[in-house]
Each structure stands twice: as C-alpha cells, then as structure tokens.
Specification:
Largest sheet: 2 strands, antiparallel
Oligomer: single chain
Distance between the termini: 42 Å
Helix content: 10-25%
Structural class: alpha+beta
CATH architecture: 2-Layer Sandwich
Number of helices: 2
Order of helices and strands: EEEHEEHE
Length: about 100
C-alpha cells in the first residue's frame, strides 16, 4: 500500500484502517427488539470482511485471519448495513425475519 504525504511516497507494510469502533454493548442489549437478522451462508462468503468493517455496532466478529465472520445477535440491531455492503449480494448475507 502506498500513501502520498506532501508529495512524498511512503511504502507501508500493512494497510492501516482508521476505524472508530463503539465499545461492545455500548447501546445495551438491543437484539430483543430486532425485526430481522442477518444470516451468513459460509458457502458463498469470500471473507472480504466488509460486513465487519461497516457494522455500526461492532456486532460482527472475526476470530482470526481466514476465519468466517459471525454475528453477535445479542447486540445486533438488524439494520442490514452488512447485507447492503456485501459484494455477494443476497447470497452470502441476507436478512431473515425473526
């Protein structure tokens, strides 16, 4: 990954993701009022982790490299952002009614 700072190229070993994540459970246990929830189909997941990066409540977890993401349904609000950003539209992640 190359970053240009003041017309100077700097080579970085690892990409830097400037993420501001909420504290787990900062909004309380919100899963009990959700009307639909995201379901992951591992057969179609390409492990791009876009769902994890875009989850506004930090309820999608990844245990390690090359692991499938999973959803912590205790805190998931069912907003569907993860489904919207998934490149495998409607096959890897989809919303199902509770």
């Amino acid at each position: 990954m190359k970053v240009i700072i003041l017309n100077e190229k700097i080579e970085l070993k690892d990409p830097i993701l400037p993420l501001g994540r909420p504290t787990l459970g900062s909004a309380g246990e919100t899963g009990d009022w959700r009307t639909s929830k995201p379901i992951l189909a591992e057969d179609y997941c390409i492990k791009c982790y876009l769902c994890w990066v875009h989850c506004p409540e930090d309820t999608i977890r990844v245990d390690g490299p090359d692991e499938f993401p999973y959803v912590d349904y205790v805190y998931c609000k069912g907003c569907g952002i993860c489904v919207h950003v998934c490149p495998k539209k409607g096959s890897a992640l989809k919303m199902e009614p509770e």
